[in-house]
Amino acid sequence: MIMVQREFRVPREHRAEFERQSREGLWPAFLHFGAPMVAFGSWGFGGPSDLFVTHTAYEDFHHWEATRAGGAMYQDEAMRAEAQAFLDVYAQRGDLVEASEAQLFELFEGVSRPQAFYRHAGQAVVPPPPTFGKGSVISERTMALETGGREEFVRLTRDVVWPWLESQGGRAIATGHNLMGASNEVTTWFAFRSYAEWHRCSRPATAHAPQAVVDAYSARAALVRHQRGRLLMIGTDFGTPV
Q1: Beta strand 130-131 with 2-9: parallel, antiparallel or unpaired?
Q2: For 166-182, how does the pLDDT look when each residue is reduced to its tens digit (9 = 90+)?
């Protein structure tokens, strides 16, 4: 599975309309295409706040190509008939954008939650992704790992770190590798209901986590050469509230 992270530069006077056309048009249409948009907002910390950012999952690159304007999804008459009401809503969305830039991630199986598939007309529609709603936070962290450390890093994340974070009220999204980035880097995305909850959980020892969790954090940190992070402030209520 792949995930495309795209940053949009939208003039301030068009920002509300861009979100509306996305929420009422493009993102529901893409659920019909089998490609859920799992996170939208602006960088609150660690990135420029004047950009909109989307994260959309696809089964593979063939699937991504089919969802492009003029691609196979748009050319399929039955598919268009199912999604036409949504297509009409965002027909002029591109006119609101001054520029955009995208990053392409390959998501790791068994640890990433988005469900994406190349959907055909008549098949079940992908459900709206879970969300904590507008004002919640997604922590994105990119870590350069020691040689040979990826498998253990992913295991600790999947089996120990994320289960504890979810027991504290958080929500795992994905782990993957930026195909445009360094080969030893891994990126994670994890959702929190607020900045305060992210900050509390960022230090498991002082958050009264079990010793096994504290040890897992330490073991995982030992695999990391260096890291950088950003916090995305969610800017929409699109999705299924959880």
Answers
A1: unpaired
A2: 999 999 999 999 999 99
